[in-house]
C-alpha cells in the first residue's frame, strides 16, 4: 500500500441528483440536462452502482452511504466536506454553497471511528458564518509523500483557513493562480491536478505564471515521479480529476471513461508504467461539474483489528 493511494473509500449514493444551481456561477464544468428529474436521478444512480461494482471488483474497499437529503444535489461528491489523514486525523470543512453544507453527516464520521483508528476530528465548519471556506480535497490536492497541499486560488479556499489547516495537519501550502482557456479561474484544484505515487497529471498550461508553473512541476517530480502534462481540452474532459488507489494487485488509477478517452496513447503508456487504469462511465454524474476524484473520499487511516 502507498501512503498516497488509499485502499478504501467513502461514496455517497445520490438520491435527487441534478446539477447544483448554487454552484453553477463558478463551476464551468456543469452542463444542463433534460427536465425529467426522475430519469436523471435513475441514470445517476445506475452509473454510481456500476462504479461501485467496478471499484470493488478491482479490490478497493467501498463504504457506501445512501443520500436521503431533500436538497443535496452534490452529495455524490463527499471529498469536499471531509478528509482523512495518516496518524488518525479527520478534518471536516466549511462549504461555500449553503445547500452543500447539508451534505455533512455524522454517520460517516462514526463509521470511520468504529472501523478505523481515529485520534481526532478537527471541525472547521463553524467558520462558515464568517465567510471562511476550504472545500476539502477539492480545494486542495494533497501530496502525502512530500507533505504539500497544492491549492488554486479561489473563494472556495480561504488563505487564512488554509494556513491554519496546513499548520495543524503538517502540510506546506503551495498556492497558485489557475485559469481556463477563457481566463476563468479554476474553482477546484482537483479538476486540474491528480497526484499519484509515481506519476502526476496536471494542467500546467492553466498556470499563467511561468515561474510558478516550473516550480510546481519541479516539486511534483521531486519524489522520483513522472509528470503528465494535460491540455485544456483534457482538463475539461475531467482527465485531471482522477485518484490513485491501492488494490491487492497493485496501484489503480480510477478516472472517468470521458477522461480516459481524452488521453493520448503516449500518456496512457506513461501512466500504465506505474498504475492500472480503471475507467468508470459516469456521464450523467459528470454533468454536475465533478468526476471520479470528487466521488471518492479516500480513507488514509489504519484499520482497527477485527
Automatic annotation (TrEMBL):
Coiled-coil blocks: none
A Pfam family that the UniProt record links to this protein: DDAH_eukar
Domain of life of the organism in this record?
Bacteria
- NCBIfam families reported in the protein's UniProt record: citrull_CtlX
What protein does this entry describe?
Amidinotransferase
Amino acid at each position: 500500500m502507498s501512503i498516497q493511494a488509499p485502499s478504501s473509500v467513502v461514496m455517497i449514493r445520490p438520491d435527487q441528483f441534478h446539477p447544483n444551481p448554487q454552484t453553477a456561477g463558478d463551476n464551468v464544468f456543469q452542463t444542463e440536462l433534460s427536465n425529467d428529474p426522475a430519469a436523471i436521478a435513475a441514470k445517476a444512480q445506475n452509473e454510481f452502482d456500476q462504479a461501485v461494482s467496478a471499484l470493488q471488483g478491482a479490490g478497493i474497499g467501498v463504504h457506501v452511504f445512501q443520500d436521503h437529503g431533500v436538497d443535496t444535489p452534490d452529495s455524490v461528491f463527499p471529498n469536499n466536506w471531509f478528509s482523512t489523514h495518516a496518524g488518525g486525523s479527520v478534518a471536516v470543512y466549511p462549504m461555500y454553497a449553503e445547500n452543500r453544507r447539508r451534505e455533512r453527516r455524522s454517520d460517516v464520521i462514526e463509521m470511520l471511528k468504529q472501523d478505523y483508528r481515529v485520534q481526532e476530528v478537527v471541525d472547521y465548519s463553524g467558520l462558515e458564518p464568517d465567510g471562511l471556506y476550504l472545500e476539502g480535497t477539492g480545494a486542495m490536492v494533497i501530496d502525502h509523500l512530500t507533505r504539500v497541499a497544492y491549492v488554486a486560488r479561489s473563494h472556495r479556499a480561504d488563505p487564512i483557513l488554509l494556513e491554519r489547516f496546513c499548520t495543524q495537519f503538517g502540510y506546506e501550502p503551495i498556492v497558485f493562480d489557475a485559469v481556463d482557456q477563457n481566463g476563468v479561474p479554476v474553482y477546484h484544484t482537483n479538476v486540474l491536478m491528480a497526484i499519484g505515487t509515481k506519476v502526476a497529471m496536471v494542467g500546467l498550461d492553466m498556470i499563467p505564471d511561468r515561474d510558478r508553473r516550473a516550480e510546481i512541476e519541479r516539486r511534483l517530480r521531486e519524489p522520483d515521479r513522472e509528470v503528465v502534462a494535460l491540455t485544456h481540452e483534457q482538463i475539461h474532459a475531467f482527465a485531471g480529476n482522477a485518484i490513485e488507489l491501492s488494490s491487492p494487485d497493485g496501484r489503480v488509477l480510477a478516472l472517468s471513461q470521458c477522461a480516459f478517452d481524452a488521453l493520448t496513447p503516449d500518456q496512457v503508456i506513461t501512466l500504465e508504467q506505474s498504475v492500472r487504469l480503471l475507467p468508470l462511465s459516469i456521464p450523467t454524474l459528470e454533468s454536475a461539474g465533478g468526476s471520479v476524484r470528487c466521488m471518492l473520499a479516500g480513507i488514509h487511516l489504519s484499520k482497527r483489528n477485527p
